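A note from the maintainers: we've had questions about how concatenated examples are separated. There is no special marker in the raw files; a new sequence line simply starts the next protein. For clarity in this README we add a label.
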Amino acid sequence: MNELSRLIADIKAGKCALILGPEIFYAEDQPLHAFIKNRLLEKYPDQIAAYYERDGFFLLRNPDDKPEMQDEVQYLYRTIQPDRHLLIKLIEIPFSLILSVNPDTWLRDLSFEYGLPNRFAWFNARKQEEFLMPDVGDANSAALRERIPQYYNLCGCIDDPATLVLDYDDLFRLLEGMLGAPKLPEKMLARLKDTTSYLFLGFQFDRWHTQLLLRLLDVKNAARRFALQSPVPADEGTEAFLLNQFRIKFLGNEEKLIDKIHETFEIEGFLRPLAKLINPRRLTITDNLQKGNLAEAISRLLEVSRGTAAENHALLLSARYNNWQSEKNKGTHDSRDLFLQYNQITDGVLNLVNEL
């Protein structure tokens, strides 16, 4: 069995983790992280004392300027148009777990746009947030198409600008949190221990914090580790170190790997189905789900379903949400149970939108 076949078999079994790095997406013909860096250097020349190119972090003259810069990063990410074709392929391929060192929400947003249930969370170095990982399910065609992916941002999220990593203080706080408390969620760590393949896209492995991340993710315990060669390949010494320490096999600069994986799953009928949400009212529903506004999404769903066969189902979802909100306000229920109920209601909204 060749390397691609082993990788595909691990994806089917739910034992492959896809890791997205800072060079997976581009903006204005440059890697996304370089685009963000250049924009911040242009806008805040007086607030930035230095930028350390090798590590990719700023040195700020005054820490009080950081919130303004974090807000600017949030704004930039929300105005960037990523490679939509690549994103669609990533959500269609039935990966069970996609981790990212980038703070964007594009996978989540596009999944909602196309009516795909998903789970999304991010690491917050200031507090621990446990969650329930979606079940992997069987490796048959129906289960693969219905598999709910977990998207997880390792380095914060633009939905919470305070979690963004801009300078060494942010990085050390992040690493301290991962190594001590709050740590990565236990269920996430348990899933990683069962992972047999890692696929890295868009990474520069010569950065020390990237190599530390490999250790934190228990990469050495996996049977297979693949990476596409970065546009700026590592030097021979670094590549030899990675091969010896982590046994990462570089697949050259083969840019069509995701296309090959996607094509294989398409031929076998294993891709997740995408709903064509053309009706503007339906798009409004999914837009509210992207923003975490489930109450407004249900309100819109009630309007769209009125007078249709789906009306009773929409009313039931509305009742379930009101009951969930009441239990949440009481503060007497386990947060994990509430999280599960919230996701079930969200999935119900998406599924009903697809049926309308």
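[label: protein 2]
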Amino acid sequence: MSLDLYHVDAFTDRAFAGNPAAVCLMPAPRDERWMQDVAREMNLSETAFVVPRQEGGFGLRWFTPTVEVDLCGHATLASAHALWEAGLLPPAAEARFHTKSGWLVAARVDGGIQMDFPATPATATEPPRDLTEALGVELRFVGMSPFDFLVEVESEDVVRSLSPDLGQLGKLPVRGVIVTARSAQPPYDFISRFFAPAYGINEDPVTGSAHCTLGPYWGPRLGKDDLLAFQASPRSGALRVRLAGDRVRLIGQAVTILKGQLLGG
């Protein structure tokens, strides 16, 4: 049986930028080993698997080439985009997903797609030696979210020029490391990069879930509930971050690059 498969660039309005994700639309659940095999074959930072749920909405799971993850922003954006493009949801309908992080909702707003995610603020912590040595720069703040280390550095230039020791970062007992600074270039409020070698992703192009930590960090410091963020990977991408209590609303765009049929398995 063939399955519809989409390759979508998320958090961008143009092809070959932002963060690519594969989206597999399935009529019924498949086993975890098969999904991991497909994600390894796709060899993108995340592959999303979407299946209708009897109680309404869709089940959604995310896999890197090596592991399943509990929360992924760009592949959720890509999944909602694919459902509307495939005609499985009316254009004005919300995309509702049951995930390991609870119900997530995506809707078309303001020329983009808005996702309602849980906030994952970071708590200040003492930096481990591996983190300090791997980054090799002055650390203004180090915090721990439920998934990642959050590190503020001196400037945007430091973020852009950073060349961390990925082997050392990969030893840390976290999903990844978010490095951020206040943006020096309007209209952006802050800039970031995200490294997750322990999960098979040396540098993620644009990380939606990291902004569930970045938003609560920068909002109070900048005195804003509505922020514009830029992730400075080689592909790069931008998104709007809106704070709403214990939730974070992420708004971005998506572009379909390829769609076809998955035949294997």
